[in-house]
Amino acid sequence: MAVDIGGTHTRVDPGDGTVVRLRTDPDYERQLAMLRDAVPGTPTAVGVSFGGRVTAAGDVRVSLHLRGYEGRPLRHDLESTLDAPVRVAHDATCGLLGEHALGSLRGADRCGYVTLSTGVGAALRLGAGGHFVALTTEAGHQLVAGNDLRCGCGQTGCLETLLGGAALGRRLGRPLEDVDDPGFWQGYARHLAGGLANFALAAGLDAVAVGGAIAARRAELWPPLRAALAERLTYQAVRVHRAALDDAPLAGARVLVDTPPGGVLH
Ligand SMILES: [Zn+2]
Fold it and tell me: How sure is the predictor about 133, in pLDDT bands with cuts at 50, 70 and 90?
């Protein structure tokens, strides 16, 4: 079965086609109790997508949107709580595994996944056949020239201050889903195009899938994004498209269970 713990929402897929959607509790202990109640029976194995960086052992290294989880042994605690073996990875890495196995990145040997949600996550996958590595990156915290906004990570000028739902909601004084101004979304598309181009060029990617609630719900984002990418990417062709799966991190959490441990760099 699979669990996706995002900065705002948690989804539980017991594997029977039903998905339970809950609000993520910022309190770590309450979140564990909520998951215990939401998971039916005793699963054989659980893949977990998490909205933050984890160590190879599954401890939470950093989670800018779930600060109370930092330093906690998430994998160990979930194994005790759910009485099952658990694998945990960053949500962008799970999104990538899902899109590569089942979605728009099938067959791509150099590809990336970017999630636009509460925060901005990015992961990439390099390799062919059974020899590959999927790795979490900090491309969401790449520095944007001329941007003097302070980011929750402590840096000044991060891409996340221009694209992340939490950062934008705070600055605009209203949730991003309430913003309908076309000019705003054109500016958003330009910032996103610059960030995607740098991410793709730095790793020589052929394809990037963009997922997360903002990418999925904002259809008006895509025409200006395609135009801005075409202006910038005149050297290497990079296929940039919307994630094909409705919930790529949740699908990827299922894939994670069967991924060799050496195939994921956290
Ligand atoms: Zn940052």
Answer: very high
- Nearest-CA neighbor of 225 among 205, 210, 212? 210
Strands 120-128 and 131-137, by their bridges, are antiparallel
- Could you give the angle at the alpha carbon of 134 between the alpha carbons of 79 and 255, nearest 5°? 50
- Is residue 256 classed exposed, middle or buried when 0-12, 13-18 and 19+ CB atoms within 10 A define those classes? buried
Does residue 217 fall inside a structural domain?
yes
Distance (angstroms) between ligand 1 centre and the Cα of 7 equals: 15
How far is ligand 1, taken at its centre, from the CA of residue 106, in Å? 30
What is the whole-number distance in angstroms between the Cα of residue 238 and the centre of ligand 1?
25
| Domain of residue 145, CATH code | 3.30.420.40
% of the chain beyond a pLDDT of 70: 100
Give the Å distance between the CA of 110 and the centre of ligand 1: 25
User: Is residue 26 a contact partner of residue 64, using CB atoms and an 8 Å limit?
Assistant: no
Q: Are residues 237 and 253 in the same domain?
A: no
3-state secondary structure of 77: helix
Which residues, in sequence order, are bridge partners of residue 211?
A: 115
For residue 26, count CB atoms less than 10 angstroms from its CB and return exposed for 0-12, middle for 13-18, buried for 19 or more: middle
Section 10-22 average pLDDT: 92
Is residue 97 one of the residues assigned to a domain? no
The pLDDT of 60-78, averaged and rounded, is: 97
